[in-house]
User: Fold these one by one.
Assistant:
Number 1:
Amino acid sequence: MTRLRGLLVAGLLLASFVVAAPAGALVVGIGDQKPDMFADPRFAAMQIRYARIAVSWDVLQNAWERDALDQWLGAARAAGVTPLVGFTHARGDRRRVLPTPSATSTSSACSGRATRG
């Protein structure tokens, strides 16, 4: 149960970084997994305000992936870019399937607040 709660909190936490666009608005951005993209002068010249990163659904459970996410989010913030986070399969040797949370576990996970980045 603690593990599921952690996963739900992680998902909610990462979802909080996504900025909703007004209905009908087109959001143009770039997708790149490497934080050094934000320091590239060619990227700065494009004046892109949104960037997407894809992370595994259990990103906060893996230190290496969590550290990479923190570096990426920090670089995005420093460049003044709004991050858009997408979720994908678990990485590494074990490709675990995302469990379906119950209403009770979702409610429990939402009762606390956390921030990242």
Number 2:
Amino acid sequence: MERYKLIKEVGDGTFGNVWRAISKQTGEVVAIKKMKKKYYSWEECVNLREVKSLRKMNHPNIVKLKEVIRENDILYFVFEYMEFNLYQLMKDRVKLFCEADIRNLCFQVFQGLAYMHQRGYFHRDLKPENLLVTKDIIKIADFGLAREISSQPPYTEYVSTRWYRAPEVLLQSCIYSSKVDMWAMGAIMAELCNLRPLFPGVSEADEIYKICSVIGSPTNESWVDGHYLARDINYQFPQLAGVDLSALIPSASKDAINLIKALCSWDPSKRPTAVEALQHPFFQSYFYVPPSLRPRSSVARTPPSAGTRVLLDQQGVRRSSGALSNSKLTNNLSSQKLNASLSAGVQRKLDMVNEDANKSDKSLKTTKQAKYRPPAKNSPNSLNKGMTVHGVSGAAEKLENMTIGARRQSLGQPHPPGVNWISESGNFLIRPGQEIKSGRTYSRKVAG
């Protein structure tokens, strides 16, 4: 830790404090998480879920773990530094976000989730405070509750902040999946549109009541597993019809409302995967090209003209097979180098570990990543009945690194008074901005 100078404490959580710091050697600003618990061996450190999961992931929308340091039985995580979290951006706003900004933020988070879920992990604690933002880039952070999809249940019932907790978890199910992350994203997306939480319950029972009052109570036909879970804990759903989300979130488009409804489905098997969310019509108004298909010299972010398109199509036919294969090979090699670099960073302070810990770490590196296998349709314990996955690996590889074509107004800057700027395909439209009350009505200090 002598190589870093602590500047300011920027966060205090259940498991650790986060400091903004600067490297004395390079001048780079970093975020250092100091764990509150003491750790007496390296083996204990490298087996932490946060370390194990982040060592296996390297994606532009997942916060990067640069180094792990253990000094005097205190554990430090060194991360790349991000300026804000999403909650800070929302609570200080007076004007609503324009939909272009919401689309950009959600698209990036779904990219990170698609990558994470494909590699066998789900987050379990998605909330605005764990989504970090710098300029127009957003990254998923805090993997302290992350679990492997292939790990065996039972899982703990207490995960995520209550307002973003999936109903199957609220009903104390010990068998759930990555679909809990998709529910959380539906609640976060609605909050981005309205700057108010969608389900602000003050207890588990009140949280379920709030959900029923918004999306309507589940029936035996819409979520039979939920009624079994409720019966097991002697809970009876209130009989509520729900409301029209379009009236509750008037600023959201039809596509946005449709996606929020799909994400906040009672039945986990009816929620889209991250890959399917990326293919939703809400994101189709953008023109984007995966990095593997983007020419290095090209800086244009709008569709080519008709004549240019014909010429590019003719050239693409001749070059497609070779260019695509070379691109995939280059991407694979780059990914291997990045992963090796990431592993090296985490291992930087692990060279004094004893022989047993070395063997454990070696097996951790060489173990083949378990692929996600959805639960069997006929499994009595499955909450994802009827869910089938088609081409997840192939689609995820294409979608996880997509970028949005045209960057809109920076999130850090407020809108001009009285107007919202919306850019679609390079054309700017001006419409009256919707005034809302400053600040937030709901307190976020409830931890249970």
